[in-house]
Write a structure and sequence with these properties.
Blueprint (H helix, E strand, L loop, with lengths): L2 E5 L2 E6 L2 E6 L6 E5 L27 E6 L5 E6 L3 E6 L5 E6 L4 E6 L5 E6 L3 E6 L8 E5 L4 E7 L4 E6 L3 E6 L6 E6 L5 E7 L4 E6 L3 E5 L5 E6 L15 E8 L4 E7 L3 E9 L4 E10 L4 E6 L5 E5 L6 E9 L2 E6 L3 H11 L2 H5 L20 H11 L20
Antiparallel strand pairs: 1-2, 2-3, 3-4, 5-6, 6-7, 7-8, 9-10, 10-11, 11-12, 13-14, 14-15, 15-16, 17-18, 18-19, 19-20, 21-22, 22-23, 23-24, 25-26, 26-27, 27-28
Length: 399
């Protein structure tokens, strides 16, 4: 699926085996680059070429991406277990490196010297940006699939979330020192954001709740979203939180969902006594939302699976002490959006790709009801029904 990341004046869109760098300060704001194919990457991970716009069709796709703090570098991890590092100014490939497992998350350190990745086996590795010969250093591991990771407090901690409903706050880079756990979600934790000013973690989960935590793992607030959620529903019917996007200036949180065609907009309020989220607006959309993100100017970028309307941009407008979303009408932004929406082949690569999240839902099996019923019968001296056995006919061995 298509994803979006924003940092400084740059925006990174990824879809299929290509990514687009949007630099709103340039005369030509959109630059599309194709990641290396399997024939263009040598055995040791070095690329044979730099730009790949004319590469032959390849069944590869980007799984995770990130922009550095200054927007100078970007990193993408693909389905062939490679981590590619680029410069954003000219789309020049710095290096391609092998990773152990397919990545689920990528993030740069504050000083832009390291790239930290999480993978499907639950491990986190660190790569040095300017030393492409150095192998990845294992930092920490979970016993289940990692879904997101972020660095907080000027890289003092690395926070990881997994399929088993938990978030771990580990010291960085000495990640063997675990600072705390955030426990409370009842399903996988799909997305996390960080409020630096109030030093709060915000998480979204497959249980359709948003929870706010401090660094000691104490839950400060739990917000039930309006999307329909029933723990007994089947996977194919279940709504879930796909992504959180946060605007630290106005403390606005945007929440996009799977199988629920709305974006919910919340405002964070935090003081010494209480921390809360107030629902400001529910923005209806026409098709499945792939991702959302705020740029440095506070505009909300929405990526959805709607032909000719893949990208939509909204401004946060303050009216009578209330914040509302309005469609962006700035000429420069509109021209950029029109150019992006014309990239039909770019976005088509994300169509019909199933999300991994519905398959991560844990089904709660009630194995106590029958036991308690049989126990009650034994206490009352009633005769228990004999267990039923299913006998299978043995098949003769083949000589």
């Amino acid at each position: 699926m298509a994803t979006i990341k924003a940092c400084c004046s740059r925006i990174l869109l990824s879809s299929g085996d290509s990514f687009a760098v949007i630099n709103l300060g340039n005369e030509k704001p959109v630059q599309v680059v194709k990641i290396p194919t399997k024939d263009e990457v040598t055995a040791d991970g070095e690329s044979k070429s730099l730009l790949h716009n004319n590469s032959p069709k390849d069944d590869n796709r980007i799984l995770a991406s990130a922009l550095s703090k200054s927007g100078k570098y970007l990193a993408v991890a693909d389905d062939r277990k490679y981590l590619h590092l680029y410069t954003t100014d000219d789309g020049c490939l710095i290096s391609s490196r092998c990773v152990v497992r397919r990545c689920t998350g990528v993030v740069f350190s504050q000083d832009e010297t390291s790239v930290i990745i999480s993978d499907k086996s639950g491990d986190v590795y660190r790569f040095v940006v300017h030393d492409e010969k150095k192998e990845g250093e294992l930092l920490l591991g979970h016993l289940s699939m990692l879904l997101d990771l972020i660095l907080i407090k000027n890289d003092k901690y690395v926070v990881t979330s997994d399929r088993d409903e938990k978030m771990r706050i580990s010291c960085y880079p000495n990640c063997y020192n675990i600072h705390s756990f955030c426990l409370g979600h009842t399903q996988y934790v799909s997305s996390m954001v960080y409020d630096e000013e109030d030093d709060l973690l915000i998480s979204g989960s497959g249980d359709c709740t948003i929870r706010i935590w401090n660094n000691d793992g104490q839950e400060q607030h739990c917000q039930k979203c309006r999307c329909p959620y029933n723990s007994s529903e089947t996977e194919s019917e279940q709504s879930y939180i796909r992504r959180l996007a946060y605007n630290p200036t106005k403390k606005i949180l945007a929440v996009c969902f799977g199988r629920y065609l709305n974006i919910e907009i919340y405002q964070l309020t935090s003081c010494k006594e209480t921390t809360s989220l107030e629902l400001l607006e529910t923005l209806p959309v026409e098709s499945e939302i792939w991702d959302v993100g705020f740029d440095e100017s506070g505009r909300l970028w929405v990526v959805q699976s709607l032909e000719d309307k893949y990208i939509s941009v909204y401004n946060l407008i303050e009216q009578q002490d209330q914040i509302k979303l309005e469609k962006c009408v700035e000429e420069k932004i509109c021209n950029t959006v029109n150019e992006l929406n014309s990239l039909k082949e770019f976005f088509t690569a994300s169509q019909n790709i199933e999300s991994i999240y519905p398959n991560l839902k844990k089904v709660r099996i009630d194995n106590m009801t029958e036991y308690l019923q049989r126990k009650e019968k034994r206490i009352q001296g009633q005769k228990l029904d004999p267990p039923t056995y299913v006998f299978q006919e043995k098949k003769p061995k083949l000589s």
